[in-house]
Amino acid sequence: MDPEEVLVQWIQGQRLKAPQMKDGPVFLRNLEEAMDVRRADHGLFTRSMSAWKSGKAIDFCSNDLLSLGSSGAIRTAFLHELETHPKFNLYAGGSRLMDGNYQYIEEVEQEIANFHGAESALLVGSGYEANGAIFSAIPRPGDAIIYDELVHASTHDGMANSLAINKTPFRHNDAEAFREVLVSVLDSQSMIRNGQRSILVAVESVYSMDGDVCPLLELLDVAKEVCPKSNFVFIVDEAHATGVLGPNGAGIVQQLGVEKDIAIRLHTCGKALASTGAVILGSNTVRNTIMNFARSVIYTTAPSFPTVAAVRAGYNLIKSGATKKAQDTIQRLTRYFFQAISASSVWEEATSMGILSIPLCDDWDEREVLTHIVPVWTRQRYNYFLVCHLQLSGICAFPIDYPTVPKGQARIRIIFHSCNTEAEVDQLVASLCKFAREMINIEKGEGITQKVPQAAQKVYALMAQG
Ligand SMILES: Cc1ncc(COP(=O)(O)O)c(C=O)c1O
C-alpha cells in the first residue's frame, strides 16, 4: 500500500455512516452513531496498513525500536529457543494457579528477575494486563494512589478497579506539584499519616506521548522528605525504556541504581523486545499478592510456551549486549535530528510563529539521555495538514489526538529506530521544514494565494474523487 492509498483509506474511514442507516437495525445504527462522533473530528481509529510495511515509506512510528523485528534478529533467537526445546507445548493448560504453571516459565521469570536485580518476576500477557493487575490488586483498603497526570490508560483502568481510598494526579513531571499532593493526602488521611496505610506513587520512566523522562530521583527525595513514616512505595512503568535505556536496556531504574527504592516495575515486551507480553518485577510478596488478587491473572490462561520463548529470546539478545549498538544508534539519530532541525533556516521563524514546536528540542544538548520518542507540534488546526504532508512525502508518523492525549493537545509522534539512517532523518527534517515554510508563506500571504497547503489540497482532491 503506498502513502496515497493509506490516506484514501483513512479518509474513507472518516465518512459519517449513521445518517445512511436510518432504516437499518437500531443496534448497528447506535454503534455507528457512537463512531460518527469520532469521525466528525477525523478521529476514528482505522486499521489501515502503514506504508512503511510495503517498503514505500520510512518507519518513524512503529514500536520496533531496536529493529529486532524488521532485521529478523528476534525470529532467529526465537527459532533457536524452539530448537532447544523441541518438545514444547503450544498450550499452558490452565490459569497460572490451576495447572497452567510449568518449569520453563518459572526459569525464564527467574532469569529476568536476576537481570533486573529484582527478587521476583511475573510474566503476563501484555503491559495492559500488567497495569490492570498491579493497580487492581496491590492497593489495600485505605491506601492512596498518587499518579502523574500522564500515566497510561492501562494504569487508569487498573486504578478504577482498585480499593484505594484516594487517587490523585499531580502535574506531569513536576516534583513540587507532587509534594503538594503528597502533603494534602497526608493531611486528609489519618491512617496514612499514622503509618498504618500506604501511599502508592505511579509514574512512567519515559512518557509514551511526550517522550520525556521521569525525574525519579527528585520524586523519591520529595517522598522521603515529606513522609516521615516512609510508608510510600513507587510503581514505575518502564514500557518505553525497556530494551533501549539503562544498562543493556534494563531501564531507567537500573540506570539510576535505585532498584531497592522501587517496589514494582513493569517492563513490556511488545515494543523494543519485538514480541508480546510483560513482566512485573517486585518482591515475592508483591508477586503472590498479584497472583491472588488480580482477576486478570487468576481468570485467564497462563502465557504459553511460544510467548515465553519469544520473551526469553528478546531478553537473551539485550542481556548479551547484542543490542548495544542499536541502543547507541537511537541516541545518535535522535541527536542528529535535534541538531539538523534546530539548525535549519526556517526553524527560528517557524518556532517563533508557533507553526512548529518540538519541546524536547529546547535543551536536548543538556540532557544525558535522549529518548526515541519525539512529539512534533504545530497549530492544532494544522495537525492533520502536517500528517498528510509527512505521509505524502513518504514518512510514516502517527497523529496522536484525543482521547489518547487531552483535547487541544494533538501532536505528531516521531519514533526513531536503530534501523533508521541519517539520510532518512534528513528526509524527515526536510519534510518538516518544507511544511513550516509553506505554512509561514500562507499565514503571511507571501507568494501564495490559497490558504490550504499542497498536501491538504491533494487530500481534498482525493476526497472529492470518493
Ligand atoms: C506506558 C505504557 N504502559 C503500558 C502499555 C501497555 O503495554 P502493551 O502494549 O504490552 O499492552 C503501554 C502501551 O503502549 C504503554 O505505553
Question: What features would you describe in this structure?
Answer:
Helix 3 (73-84) crosses helix 13 (305-320) and helix 14 runs parallel beside helix 17 (422-444). The strands form three sheets. This protein has a seven-stranded mixed beta sheet with strand order 2-8-7-6-5-3-4, with helices on both faces. A three-stranded antiparallel beta sheet has the order 9-12-11, with helices on one face. It has a two-stranded parallel ribbon with strand order 1-10. With 466 residues, it is an alpha/beta fold. The mean pLDDT is 94. It has two domains: 3-66 and 325-465, Alpha-Beta Complex (Aspartate Aminotransferase, domain 1), CATH 3.90.1150.10; 73-320, 3-Layer(aba) Sandwich (Aspartate Aminotransferase, domain 2). Strand 6 (232-237), helix 10 and strand 7 form a beta-alpha-beta unit. The chain has 18 helices and twelve strands. Residues 126-128, 131, 152, 154, 204, 208, 237, 239-240, 268, 270, 278 line the site of pyridoxal-5'-phosphate (PLP).
